């Protein structure tokens, strides 16, 4: 190899990584740095050091992790190095990277409180939702309950199944903002009939950022003999996820949002007792030889450098700590919601209850068109946020959410949050120019 990397050296690396890369050395150094005295870990200096590990554009307040997160520099460097190794010796080095899959599966499983035999490595939550939907046996007339604020990746598979197989999909109304956790549980309970077989719901919806009381809904489902499927795309990497404690039957998630893994990585949890009832959606060589979750990710050739980078994303978050990350996210988002609620003309769609929200805040101004407000924030305050509009993408929302969504992650700062608030105050008062 021109770079001085031999296959022999590549294969001699420790279990901690797929190749002895300088990027791995950088990540190890980062992990050591994060193990500073506990008292130091909550000050601004600590989070400034964390932020330096990202390639975020200078001056940009990137507040759209709910769509796609920023990949840490060590993770990006590792992935790029893996792609280089693939270019230098495609087949052999691909095989070496592929050989890391089971170690990565085990690490990902531990991260969400599952056994490795219960976790498949997919591309994203959309793929996982479709696999579960199409893989479970249901009869014509069987009912599936979904929340009214589901992302299309959890709505459209069920609607397609309804067209093809005659199942019935019922949308359970969730308020904007939701009144309380119990109100959400009660709404699902009222919707259950003798034909209901499945509840499929977002752990945190992408429209308003409302965290559903998933554990209570799971208990309700199981008490009625129903299956409970969860879409956790907006949770992994933002809050701690323990699928065993939640007692869900399946849990799908995307890793390119709050976990900050490169796009193209996702996880699917299917509890052991259900795996013989959910069929794989792709059948390729040797898929039948697996009786556990590995049968769901047998998709032959795939971008192994991206899969390998998932391990580094998991390590990056573990170096900081899930509890610390969740605390930081909540500090930023709760400050933003509290101050935004004091601004005239602001309408919040996200609950103020900290048990019902995390890093996402959806809101609007009743005196300014959302598109104009978003454009003003981008041009005058260098703030990048997401639009929330009613219509084809979110047709089921009973209250017609129209506005914008602000996502605060651990690499964001209070100064960036203040920029949004300053812009909102100017817009609300009519002094924006």
Automatic annotation (TrEMBL):
<dbReference type="GO" id="GO:0045439">
    <property type="term" value="F:isopenicillin-N epimerase activity"/>
</dbReference>
<keyword id="KW-0663">Pyridoxal phosphate</keyword>
<dbReference type="InterPro" id="IPR000192">
    <property type="entry name" value="Aminotrans_V_dom"/>
</dbReference>
<dbReference type="Pfam" id="PF00266">
    <property type="entry name" value="Aminotran_5"/>
</dbReference>
<dbReference type="InterPro" id="IPR006311">
    <property type="entry name" value="TAT_signal"/>
</dbReference>
<dbReference type="InterPro" id="IPR015421">
    <property type="entry name" value="PyrdxlP-dep_Trfase_major"/>
</dbReference>
<protein>
    <submittedName>
        <fullName>Isopenicillin N epimerase</fullName>
        <ecNumber>5.1.1.17</ecNumber>
    </submittedName>
</protein>
<keyword id="KW-0413">Isomerase</keyword>
<feature type="domain" description="Aminotransferase class V">
    <location>
        <begin position="69"/>
        <end position="420"/>
    </location>
</feature>
<dbReference type="InterPro" id="IPR015422">
    <property type="entry name" value="PyrdxlP-dep_Trfase_small"/>
</dbReference>
<dbReference type="InterPro" id="IPR015424">
    <property type="entry name" value="PyrdxlP-dep_Trfase"/>
</dbReference>
